[in-house]
Amino acid sequence: MILATFIQAIAQILSMVINIYIWVIIISALISWVNPDPSNPIVQILRRLTEPAYAFVRRYIPTVIGGIDLSPIIIILALQFLDLFLVRVLFNLARSLA
Predict the structure, then answer these.
(1) Burial category of 71 from C-beta neighbours within 10 Å (exposed 0-12, middle 13-18, buried 19 and up)
(2) Tens digit of pLDDT per residue, the chain (98 long)?
(3) CA 58/CA 15 separation, integer angstroms
(4) Which of 35, 44, 51, 56 is most exposed by smallest CB count within 10 Å?
(5) What angle do CA 80, 49, 31 make, to 5 degrees?
(6) How far is CA 23 from CA 81, 82, 91, in A?
(7) How far apart are CA 64 and CA 18, in angstroms?
(8) Is the dihedral of CA 75, 76, 77, 82 positive or negative?
């Protein structure tokens, strides 16, 4: 029972972290359209949080099509898959242990 509750809590926290990061990517993509001031602290934080993920995707997949960078969309889709698949697997595991 304790292990099931622990796994359920981990799944819930993982889902929240994934959703927060999805919103960070969305905000970063929207801000990039207006050419923000690079010295702005919020812009710097958003870039530090998103550029490593963008670089990882760009290393394996050509993401610029017609001048539009699709790496945020690819990352959001991958995170949604993780949220739907991994979190549900953890919830089902917790349910089977209860």
Answers:
(1) buried
(2) 888 899 999 999 999 999 999 999 999 999 988 988 889 999 999 999 999 999 999 999 888 888 888 999 999 999 999 999 999 999 899 888 87
(3) 25
(4) 35
(5) 85
(6) 15, 15, 23
(7) 24
(8) positive
